[in-house]
């Protein structure tokens, strides 16, 4: 239950940040969304009902499934690469990339 609430709060924060216009807030929104997805994957793996994925227990039904953990590790690496790419795009963006120009400002500059 705690994982579900935490994932929900992370998604809520991610949606809030993604709706902002600043590129840094959008990047942070994607980071939060990635963390929420990782928590959902870990919760789907049933980590709370099982033991550690390593060792040699007597009962193999209590060993945690390593597949969701491998998925999360892969997702962390991919999210890190996407975050770096988005931050580079945010830094190298030009001032002309802003699309908040009003029609009247365009007409005053002589362009139509």
The total count of strands amounts to 0
Strand content: under 5%
Radius of gyration: 21 Å
Order of helices and strands: HHHH
Topology overview:
Blueprint: H1 2-18, H2 23-44, H3 66-92, H4 103-108
Helix pairs in contact: 1-2, 2-3
Q: Please, could you describe this protein's structure?
A:
Belongs to the CPA3 antiporters (TC 2.A.63) subunit C family. Keywords: Cell membrane, Membrane, Transmembrane, Transmembrane helix. It holds the Pfam family Oxidored_q2. InterPro entries: CPA3_antiporter_subunitC, NUOK/Mnh_C1-like. The protein is mostly helical and 112 residues long. The protein has helices at residues 2-18, 23-44, 66-92, 103-108.
In short:
The protein contains 4 helices and no strands. By secondary structure, it is mainly α.
Can you tag this structure with a few keywords?
112 residues; single chain; mainly alpha; Cation:proton antiporter subunit C; 0% strand; 4 helices
């Amino acid at each position: 239950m705690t994982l579900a609430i935490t994932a929900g709060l992370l998604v809520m924060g991610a949606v809030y940040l993604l709706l902002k216009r600043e590129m840094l807030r959008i990047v942070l929104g994607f980071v939060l969304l990635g963390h929420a997805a990782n928590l959902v994957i870990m919760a789907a793996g049933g980590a709370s009902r099982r033991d550690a994925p390593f060792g040699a227990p007597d009962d193999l039904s209590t060993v945690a499934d390593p597949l969701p953990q491998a998925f999360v590790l892969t997702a962390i690496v991919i999210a890190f690469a996407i975050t770096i790419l988005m931050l580079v795009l945010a830094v190298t963006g030009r001032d002309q990339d802003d699309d908040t120009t009003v029609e009247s400002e365009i007409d005053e500059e002589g362009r139509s």
